Amino acid sequence: MAAPRLTLSVFVLMLAVIALTEGVRGPGPKKCCFGFNTIPVPKERVVSYTRTSQRCTNPAIMLKTVAGRNLCVKPSATWVKELISYMDAKPAPGQTSNL
To answer: How far does the signal peptide extend, from start to end residue (predicted)?
Structure first.
């Protein structure tokens, strides 16, 4: 009779420890960059961009290319700043101009 109670107690204790450690750690960033592309990418090859989470150790921009690849680039690079300005000024697909 003592063995099932001991087994159940150990199981509940293990679940509590797992739940506690997962809760303390919290959800981390989805994607971070650790290596960077230094070669400028032509703006015609870039479909979109996203900034990585502030919780990543390296601030970065992820470029999505027409080929479906994700490239990590440094946001401080001049060509990256120009590319972002170009992408922000470009109308979204399906959006019409009011001019």
So the answer is: 1-23
